[in-house]
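Extended Data, record Complex I intermediate-associated protein 30 (CIA30)
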Amino acid sequence: MRIGSISGRAKTAFARTLAAFISVLALSLVGSPGVAQAADSGAGRGCECATPSIDRFQQWLASGEGTTVPATGSLLVREGRGHVAKIDFVNAEWHVFVVWLGNKFEAQADLTRSSGFWMTYSATDDLYVQLRPASQWSGGDKWLTLVPSTRGKVVRKFFPFTPDKWTWLPELGKPSHTFASALSEARGFVFVGKTANKLKFEGLRIDRYQPPCV
């Protein structure tokens, strides 16, 4: 039988079957809205490390410098189905905590191709984050950028690695190295602040870099 001789009823049945097949195929490719939303909301949790971590960063550490709660050790605490980092800065003095970018002190990361990082956090006052290179780890004379207060609300903010967004504080000293060199051998983010502050961190993602679990 030639295709042109198919009856009207057969044509209708064939059209319905074809439409159903296309609908199923499209659903399998893009997924339903509910499935897509669930995948997005769980993206940061599904790839966590076996030990407590935030976006695979396992080492959030109070350094013992300044009066903080906790005073030393890990800032990671269980919250919901994952972990967050919490620390309080107490009194008007310099406070310090550290995030090791390679999850161990000896590691370093080349961030020269990265555009910056996203951070999900809350802070009751301003503070700074320093980018400390492996070869110039010690001392306060480092390149830093402002982490603005959120008035205690959780926000997600992008911090670019463009040199004009990074500076230094006269009180801590002028870096003897370039910002580009700090990016090329980044060992850790060091957060510093001189005022009382209540801090919480829920996310940290660096463009073009994912830390290894250790």
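Summary. Residues 8-30 form the longest helix (23 residues).
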